[in-house]
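Async update (no meeting this week)

Hi team, since we skipped the sync, here's where things stand on the single-chain job. The sequence we agreed to prioritize is pasted below, unchanged from the tracker. I ran it this morning and attached the output directly underneath so nobody has to dig for it. Comments welcome in thread, and please keep replies under the output.
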Amino acid sequence: MRLQFLVSLISVLMYCPSVLAHGGVAFEEDNCVINIGFLKAHFTGYQPQSRGNKEFCEDIPDVGESLFVIEYLHEFLSKIPVDFRIIEDVNNIGVFANWSDIESIEDIERVTVFYQPPVRRPGGVMNVEYEFREAGSYIGIVTAPHPTEDKIYRAVFQFQVGGRRFGYHLPIIFGLIVIVQYVYWVNGGGLRRLRQRRSM
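Output:
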């Protein structure tokens, strides 16, 4: 029974995106949401030339023209200038990228591939178009300053372009395989056979 439970657990983890969500992007009710401090925005990626109207929540499958649509879920965001930056993940920060990692980059302009200056968007939607020329790991950064207080709200999220993210999930999968093997050894044939050999 325990073995069957663990096999079921692996299946759930493999196919449940909310468990494997990463970075500043989270899945909420089938939507992709980025957290800009305590503020939230709905994030969607498109590749019209290669993928038509298909939506992407995080990773971008192809190198080439891409469109990001960020819809503000708080009216407050539409009243302040918000910028958007994409940088190369030169330090291989990966899925756990945060603002302290970005601050440690000596020359952020050198690794920036796209920057949209801060703009107020009364309609509450930011549209970003960029043509990726190389596959690899990138980091998106959204910055929103408070209009009256000395506060800056940020979202930092990593995404992959032109390739699957399977490698990032390997540690989780490997760990679950080890657990299943251990349970089988304790409850199943492995430990039993060892005891039988010792009793001979």
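Quick observations from my side:
Confidence is low (pLDDT under 50) at residues 12-23, 165-170.
The chain has one domain: 22-165.
Reply here if anything looks off.
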